Every structure is written in C-alpha cells, then in structure tokens.
What does this fold into?
Amino acid sequence: MSHATKILGLSAYYHDSAAALVIDGNIIAAAQEERFSRKKHDARFPENAIRYCLGEAGITMTDIDEVVFYDKPLVKFERLIETYLSYAPNGIRSFIAAMPIWLKEKLYLKSTLKRELAALGKIKITELPKLLFAEHHQSHAASAFFPSPYNKAAVLCLDGVGEWSTTTV
It folds into this structure.
C-alpha cells in the first residue's frame, strides 16, 4: 500500500491566520483561525484551524509529511533592509517601529513555528514533519491553481506585499 502524502499549509502572524490540509493533492480541510476565535482577521498561530483540519482527516501531527508556511520571512527581511537603506534617512520612523518586531519575533519564525507545532501535537520538536517556506505569491498562485480543473494555467497575482514582488504571473 502506497503512502499518501499529507501536507499542512499555514498562514500566520500577519493577518487572517489559516490552515489547510492536502492529502495526495486533494484538499481535505481548510479554515481560518477567526472562525474559531471569533476575532476578525486573527493573526495568531492558527491552533484551532490546524486542529480542525487534522480532525477532519482523523490524523495527528505525526502523520503529516510536510508543513508549508506561506512566506519566506528572511527574504522579506532582506527587502525591508534594502528598501530602508535605499530611501534613508526617509522612513526612519517606520524603520524604528518595524525593527524590534523583526529582531524579536520574525527572524526566529522557524523556531517559533516548530515550538507551536510541537506543543499542539504534544510531540518533541525532533518528531515534527519537515518545515518548508514557499514564496508569498507562489502560495497565492497555488491556492488558485491546484483546486482548479486545469492541468496548465497562467495565474496572475496582484498583491500589496510579497517578499519583493507585488505583481507576478
């Protein structure tokens, strides 16, 4: 019997935290955290949404093969630093406001996610599935393309923010 590939997709720590479970290319469950917390645009770790997705499939965190986060935080940090340097000294107030958050939280996102996932699954960090980071626009495009009935398609993403891009095909 072949092993079904189980992927847990996550969005968190910006706005509208959510989780989606895909097994062998089929979406099994997806939910936004705000549906459980009743907090509009909830940005926290989507603990309840993950529990819901796992419950719908009747599996636990140890059954997951890969966890994929919607963004590449280190690439985004590089963009922020380069942008601030390009426009210095303009934007110094924004820079001063943004840096403590990045230096205390966002640069350690991989560790934070592992800690949260291990706590949710009541397992050791070493027992977690592989943690991957997709590009922001790639995540948007995948969420449109993979559930579609098409084998080939062009996907246009227009977004206010990504790692570097705001528009991609």
